[in-house]
């Protein structure tokens, strides 16, 4: 959902990984250009049930939301979760403050821009001042661990694998009983 810089890179990665994907974008000019290039891209507002239905969200395994506005993102997460309870939803958001509400609406992974941008900036500062790469990586890991602690508390326990489910369309859900 969304075909700005982040959405384009996600689509590019999907192609690289040979992952079938569909793009939903609200800019009609972008849609026209990408259709001419052979992209599978639909014009529409992803916060509308009909648009998500058209994109076959019920069969999707993963949804990546890269739209810039928190209110749109919250609506998309809420609707998508209702249409496909097994969908893995990854959201880009601008602010750390959005993480809790997005998780409560059903997002599985939330990437806050303000935090990740700060990590990238301090990484470059440290590198410029010749701090060894291994030390920078340790600091990045520690800071991410500290900052994402709030989110981890909202998520299921890492060792509680009994609650994890995988939706593989070709196979019946192993938790379904006859």
Structure write-up:
- By secondary structure, the chain is mainly α.
- It has a single domain (5-163), classed as Rossmann fold, CATH 3.40.50.
- The protein contains eight helices and five strands, in the order H-E-H-E-H-E-H-E-H-E-H-H-H.
- It has helices at 5-16, 28-36, 49-54, 70-83, 99-105, 113-128, 133-147, 149-154, and strands spanning 23-25, 41-43, 62-65, 88-93, 109-112.
- Helix 2 links the parallel strand 1 and strand 2 (41-43).
- Helix 6 packs antiparallel against helix 7 (133-147).
- The longest helix has 16 residues, at 113-128.
- The protein is globular.
- Residues 154-164 and 174-178 have low confidence and may be disordered.
Q: Indicate the CATH architecture.
A: 3-Layer(aba) Sandwich
Look at the structure and give the mean pLDDT.
Answer: 85
Number of domains: 1
Major β-sheet annotation: 3 strands, parallel
CA radius of gyration: 18 Å
Strand order of the largest sheet: 3-4-5
DSSP summary: helix tally: 8
Report how far apart the termini are: 37 Å
Structural class: mainly alpha
Helix content: 40-55%
Q: Could you say what the CATH topology is called? A: Rossmann fold
**H and E string:** HEHEHEHEHEHHH
β-strand amount: 5-15%
Low-confidence stretches: 154-164, 174-178
CATH top level assignment: Alpha Beta
User: How would the global form be characterised?
Assistant: globular
The CATH homologous superfamily: NAD(P)-binding Rossmann-like Domain
Per DSSP E runs of 2 or more residues, the count of β-strands stands at 5
């Amino acid at each position: 959902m969304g075909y700005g810089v982040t959405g384009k890179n996600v689509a590019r990665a999907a192609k690289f990984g040979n992952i079938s994907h569909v793009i939903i974008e609200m800019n009609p000019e972008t849609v026209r250009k990408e259709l001419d290039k052979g992209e599978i891209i639909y014009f529409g507002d992803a916060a509308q049930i009909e648009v998500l239905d058209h994109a076959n969200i019920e069969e999707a395994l993963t949804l990546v939301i890269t739209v810039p506005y928190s209110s749109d993102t919250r609506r998309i997460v809420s609707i998508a979760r209702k249409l496909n309870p097994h969908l893995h939803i990854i959201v880009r958001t601008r602010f750390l403050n959005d993480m809790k509400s997005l998780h409560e609406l059903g997002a599985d992974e939330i990437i806050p821009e303000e935090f990740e941008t700060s990590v990238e900036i301090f990484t470059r500062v440290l590198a410029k001042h010749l701090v060894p790469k291994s030390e920078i990586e340790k600091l990045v890991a520690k800071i991410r661990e500290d900052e994402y602690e709030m989110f981890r508390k909202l998520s299921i326990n890492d060792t509680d694998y009994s609650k994890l489910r995988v939706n593989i369309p070709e196979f019946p859900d192993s938790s379904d009983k006859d």
